[in-house]
Design brief:
Aldolase, 10 helices, 2 domains, five-stranded mixed barrel, 32% strand, P-loop_NTPase, Rossmann fold, globular, nine-stranded mixed beta sheet, 366 residues, alpha+beta, 20 strands, 25% helix
């Protein structure tokens, strides 16, 4: 979707719908491409939308707001300056106003009316698009938690009717393992950073999520298509001594990722089949062993949008917290459903053979 032609669109993901009204010649093609890996996007609007979002260019209605006296907030904080979005926030009546300092993007949010107005000059387009992406992410993540969906920091592949979750801390090898499953075992890419979980009729189900997969230079070096796409040959040659350091990680846009490897379709969900916990390091071999009682390793990677008092961890309160006991109950249900599913630990290089260990627990070396 290189360019949006219509004025009104609806984005849908699990329990969440967002309406968009685009003024003038504004196009959100790149943003819809980003979310279109997992969201269903259609022309027209929904009566049940979580938010009605108007996107304008240089809206004069923000001119009278004194942002100089506003509270300093962050739409997003990141180790990367590009992904960090500082802003000033002003509350007037029912409306919360924000001015994003890097882009001159303005946002007005009225939760009671379910309306959001975004005004931006469309001059620093990549940064301005990042503001809209973060807004959409924030709204949907909170709404899904209110509907009892559990968010897990995990990558995910799909094969033969099952989702396979890959869990671990930064640098453990989640993305490497995911790409091995896709390239060696014929899996499809389902999620590159977060996986959404819920229990239905006793079965654990999963959905992927659009995000920037963060791939290390070492991981990218194993796949010629990525090396060629991003022109990495010289950088890889120069970084041999630190090739597997997390310092070399970079964000890959999900739509670019989708153009290079097989993905499940937008809106796709599947029952969970297995859990994988990589602990990769430079090595000549890989070893796979089946784990018992793996749920204790899964729990630290559950992400919550609201704290125990129901306060939003993020920069706005457009989506109010629902009943926190309901998400706690769903977490316990997910843990119980996960407990009976097979789990594997992969150590060493992470390079897989053609043996599908997820079917038989085959010890795999290469």
């Amino acid at each position: 979707m290189a360019e949006t032609k219509a004025n009104q669109y609806t984005m849908s993901f699990l329990h969440s719908e967002l309406n968009f009204n685009l003024e003038g010649s504004i196009s959100l093609g790149s943003i819809f491409d980003f979310f279109g890996t997992h969201f269903v996007i259609k022309e027209g609007t929904s009566h049940n939308a979580l938010a009605h979002i108007t996107v304008a260019k240089n809206d004069d209605s923000f001119n009278g707001i004194d942002f100089a006296k506003g509270e300093e907030v962050y739409l997003r904080k990141s180790a990367s300056d590009f992904f960090t979005i500082p802003a000033k926030q002003v509350r007037l009546g029912e409306t919360v106003y924000l001015q994003c300092s890097k882009t001159d993007t303005y946002i007005a949010m009225n939760a009671n009316k379910r309306t959001i107005v975004i005004s931006t000059p469309w001059e620093d387009v990549k940064r301005e698009e990042l503001v809209l992406i973060e807004l959409i992410r924030d709204l949907v993540l909170k709404n899904e938690e209110n509907h009892g969906v559990v968010v897990l920091h995990a990558t995910c592949s799909y094969d033969e009717g099952r989702a396979n979750l890959i869990i671990g801390p930064k640098g453990a090898g989640k993305s490497t393992t995911l790409l091995e499953l896709v390239s060696k075992l014929g899996h499809q890419f389902m999620s590159g950073d977060k996986t959404f979980l819920w229990v239905k009729e006793g079965q654990l189900h999963a959905s992927g999520w659009p995000d920037y997969p963060h791939l290390g230079l070492g991981t990218l070096s194993k796949y010629p298509d990525f090396v060629g796409k991003f022109g990495l040959s010289e950088e890889i040659d120069a970084a041999q001594e630190t090739l597997w350091s997390t310092d070399h990680k970079r964000a890959i846009p999900p739509d670019v990722f989708k153009s290079m490897i097989p993905h499940v379709p937008a809106g796709f969900t599947a029952p969970v089949g297995a859990f994988i916990y990589p602990k990769l390091e430079p090595s000549a071999n890989s070893e796979i062993r089946q784990l018992q009682n793996h749920v204790a390793f899964m729990v630290p990677h559950i992400e919550r949008m609201f704290d125990e008092e129901g306060l939003a961890k993020q920069w706005n309160e457009f989506v109010k917290p629902g009943r926190l006991d309901e998400i706690d109950t769903m977490i316990e249900q997910c843990k119980a459903a996960a407990y009976v599913l097979p789990a594997f630990e992969i150590t060493g290089s992470g390079i897989l053979t053609s043996h599908n260990f997820l079917d038989g627990g085959v010890i795999s070396y290469e």
